[in-house]
Amino acid sequence: MISLSLLNGAPGIYFPCFRGVRQGDPLSPLLFCIAEEVLGRLIEVATNARVLLQILTLYADIPGQVFNPHKSKVYFGSRVSSYVRERVQTIMRIQPGMFPTVYLGAPIIKGAPKVVDLQAVFDKIIPKFRRWKGSSLSLAGRVSLVISVITSSFVRTMMVYKWPNTLLKQMEMAMRNLI
Questions:
Q1: d(CA 100, CA 104)
Q2: Of the ranges 9-23, 52-66, 89-103, the best mean pLDDT one
Q3: What is the DSSP pairing of strand 73-74 with strand 95-96?
Q4: Do 125 and 59 share a structural domain?
Q5: Are residues 89 and 42 in the same domain?
Q6: What angle do CA 115, 112, 155 make, to 5 degrees?
Q7: DSSP string spanning 23-92?
Q8: 90 and 153 share a domain?
Q9: What would the 3-class secondary structure string for 124-178 be?
Q10: How many domains does the chain have?
């Protein structure tokens, strides 16, 4: 079936897409951002837990994802009544979460982070320094390793939080010791 559509503002022939978007397609991140924007706006206008559950279910059906209440948590503000908390948990079948928590390896905390909040992230990376120190890498290899692997391990949390100076100095010292 051939139908007319607008192509660069002028009428053109519609061409169907048979294969969909593949991994690595340059359009993939853009389409994901558009879908996330729609989801965010729908959540903003959701008036109760049933509507929110319908939105999440509909959103999950479109790309074939599954909403798993067993892997999900709901976080409430301090002003939310216990009645509302219980209703939301019952309707959505989601357990409440508590702060601090970890999401994708990065801690989620209230307020400015302290050393104790980010120490676990730091402590996960330091053993890698010790393993690589004894390897037979050249100086250039060790520098490349520090720049690419070690610093990228911290990037996610550094984009969200301003790290305490104490941890930054410890990280710098560990990186220098490796080189």
A1: 13
A2: 89-103
A3: parallel
A4: no
A5: yes
A6: 70
A7: TT-TTHHHHHHHHHHHHHHHHHH--SHHHHHHHHHHHHHTTT----TTS-EE---TTS-HHHHHHHHHHH
A8: no
A9: HHHHHHHHHHCCCCCHHHHHHHHHHHHHHHHHHHHHHCCCCHHHHHHHHHHHHHH
A10: 2
* pLDDT mean across residues, the chain: 79
Clarify whether residues 8 and 41 are in a common domain.
yes
- Domain containing residue 174: 102-178
Do 10 and 92 fall into the same domain?
A: yes
pLDDT band at 5 (very low <50, low <70, confident <90, very high): low
CA neighbours within 13 Å on the CB side: how many for 141?
7
Of 62, 96, 130, the position where a domain reaches its end is 96
Query: Which among 31, 61, 96 is the end of a domain?
Result: 96
Q: Which residue has the higher pLDDT, 18 or 56?
A: 56
pLDDT band at 124, cuts 50/70/90? confident
